Amino acid sequence: MSAELAEQVRQRRTFAIISHPDAGKTTLTEKLLLFSGAIQIAGSVKARKATRHATSDWMEIEKQRGISVASSVMQMEYRGCTINLLDTPGHQDFSEDTYRVLTAVDAALMVIDAANGVEPQTRRLLQVCRARNTPILTFVNKMDREVQEPLALMDEIERELGMTVVPFTWPVGMAKFFGGVLDLRKDQMRVFSPGEDRVAGTEEIVDGLANPVLNERFGDVYEQAAGEIELVREAAPAFDEAEFLAGRQTPMFFGSAVNNFGVQEVLDALVDLAPPPGPRPAIQRTVEPDEGKFTGVVFKIQANMDPAHRDRIAFLRVASGKFSRGMNLKVVRSGKTLRPNTVVTFMSQKRELLDEAFAGDIIGIPNHGVLQLGDTLTEGEALQFTGLPFFAPELFRSVEVADPLKTKQLRAGLTQLGEEGAIQVFRPMAGSVLLLGAVGQLQFEVVAHRLEHEYGVKARIMPARYNVARWVTCEEADGGEKELKRFIDANSHRLALDAVDAPTLLLEYAGELRAIQENWPKIKFHALREHAGLVFQQRMGD
Ligand SMILES: Nc1nc2c(ncn2[C@@H]2O[C@H](COP(=O)(O)OP(=O)(O)OP(=O)(O)O)[C@@H](O)[C@H]2O)c(=O)[nH]1
C-alpha cells in the first residue's frame, strides 16, 4: 500500500492560478484543460465569462457562485500526472477566499498581462505566496498585442515582486510582428500562428536559436530578441531548483493564451518543475503526504445554489493518505464522525462521485454545517492543521433585523455565513448589536442579499464607527491569560468576540493602536489570525 501511495503522491500536482482580473486567467485555464484533454469545450469556464455582463455586482457574484462550485477546482491528467488546478476569484473584495485557496496548493501559476505588467491584485496575491514560500511559475500573456518590452517586464517582476526571474522562453517581436518564442532550454524557436481554435502541438518548430533561417525570416525582431537573450544570459542566474521551490526564483514563459500559444510549455513545467504534495504542519506534528492514514483540511466552504436545501460543499485538501468513499472521518474540532457517501470530485468540470482520492487532491463534501473552515478531518487522530488565515477586517457595519421576531434567524444566518468565510461576525462585549467585518465592500451586499433570500431575514446594515480590528493575545511568559483578562476588563467597551470567541480590539483610528500598544506592552495585537484562535505574528500589509 505505501509504495502505491508514495507513487500516487509523486504523480500529483496541485496548483492555483492567480492574476489581476482580465490578465487571461480564464482563457489560460480553458486552454490548459483543452491540452490535457480534460474537456472538449470548456463549457463552464466560458460560462463564467458570460456572467461578467450581468447588471449588478452582487447578482454577478450570485451567478458565479453556482458556476464556480464546478469550475473553481479542476482536475486533469497530463503525462501520467494528476493535476489539480484551483481557480481564484478575480474580484479583490473576495481576496480572503483566494488567500485561503492558496493554503491548499503546492505551487502557483501567475498570469501577467504583458501590456499592464505587475498589477495591484497580482502584488497582493504574490505577497501571500511569498509568505508561504509557494513556488511560482510566471506566464506572460497577450504577446500578440502591443505590450511592454520583455526586458522591462522581467525587471518589473523582479523589482515589484522580489523574485529572481529566469526566462525559459523569450519572445520574438510582439503584436503583429510577434513571431513566436525562442525556447532557451530546447534550443529551438516555436513559430507563432494566430487562431483561437489552433490544435495543441501543431506549431512550426525551427531548430537552433542561431539558425540563420530565423534571421532571414524574422529580421529585426529576431535580432533584437537574440541581443536581449545575450543580455539575459549574462545577467540572469541559472535556474536553481531549490530557489524555485523556496519561492525566490520564478521560471518565466511568454505566450498568448487566446491563441493557444505557449500553453503546453506551462503544462510541461508544472509536471517537470512544480513539486508534488509535501509535508504539512499541524499543531501536534508534521504530517507527511504518504502516511498510511488519511488526513485533510477544509480550506473553503461554498453554499450550494439551491437555497431550499441549504447544503454546502466543504472543499478539503487531502493532506495525507488515501480517501475512500464510505470511510469514517473524524471532525477533530467537534469530535463528530462523518461517513460521507456523496463526496464529489471535480474532474472534467462535472461534479462526479468520487471513490478515492490521494494526498494533494481536493475533494468536496456536501454537508449541512458540520464542517467549518479550517476543520481537520482524520481517521481518529487528534490533529489540527495550521495556516488557514483570517484577515483583520478593514470595513465594519452594524447589523439589525427589521422585524425583531427574526432575531434568531439573523443570528443563525450570520453564524453560517461567518463559518463559510463570507463575512466576519463580531459580538461586542458591551451592547447587543452585532458587527460585521469585511475586507471588501461587496461582501456586505452579498451577505444582505443572502440573508434575505436564504434565511428570510431582511437585515438593516448600517455604518459602524470602527475602522481597525486587531486580535489580542498574551504569551505565557508575559502573563498569559491573566494579563489578557486584565486588558479585556480595562477595554471591554472596545472589545468584541469573533466567531471562535477570540477577543478582538476594535478602533476608530489606526493611530489609537499605537497608544494602546504603549500602555499594554505585554499584549500582542494581530492583523492576521489562524483558524482555532492561533495567531500568526506576521503583518501582511497592502
Ligand atoms: N489579445 C489577446 N487577448 C487575450 C489573450 N488571452 C486572453 N485575452 C483576452 O483578455 C480578456 C480577459 O481574459 P480572461 O481570460 O477572461 O481574463 P481573466 O484573468 O480570467 O479575468 P477575470 O475572470 O476577470 O479574472 C478576454 O477578452 C480575452 O479574450 C491573448 O493572449 N491575447
Automatic annotation (TrEMBL):
Keyword Iron assigned to the entry: answer is: no
Which BP terms does GO give this entry?
Answer: regulation of translational termination
The protein's UniProt keywords, in alphabetical order, are:
Cytoplasm, GTP-binding, Nucleotide-binding, Protein biosynthesis
State its location(s): Cytoplasm
Record Gene3D superfamilies? P-loop containing nucleotide triphosphate hydrolases, Peptide chain release factor 3, domain III
- Specify where it is mainly localized: cytoplasm
Q: Which residues bind GTP?
A: 19-26, 87-91, 141-144
Instruction: List GO molecular-function terms, semicolon-separated.
Output: GTP binding; GTPase activity; guanosine tetraphosphate binding; translation release factor activity, codon nonspecific; translation release factor activity, codon specific
Q: Provide the Tr-type G domain boundaries.
A: 10-278
Q: Which SUPFAM superfamilies match?
A: EF-G C-terminal domain-like (SSF54980), P-loop containing nucleoside triphosphate hydrolases (SSF52540), Translation proteins (SSF50447)
Please describe what this protein does: Increases the formation of ribosomal termination complexes and stimulates activities of RF-1 and RF-2. It binds guanine nucleotides and has strong preference for UGA stop codons. It may interact directly with the ribosome. The stimulation of RF-1 and RF-2 is significantly reduced by GTP and GDP, but not by GMP.
Q: Which PANTHER family does UniProt cross-reference here?
A: PEPTIDE CHAIN RELEASE FACTOR RF3
Protein known as: Peptide chain release factor 3
**Organism (species):** Ideonella alba
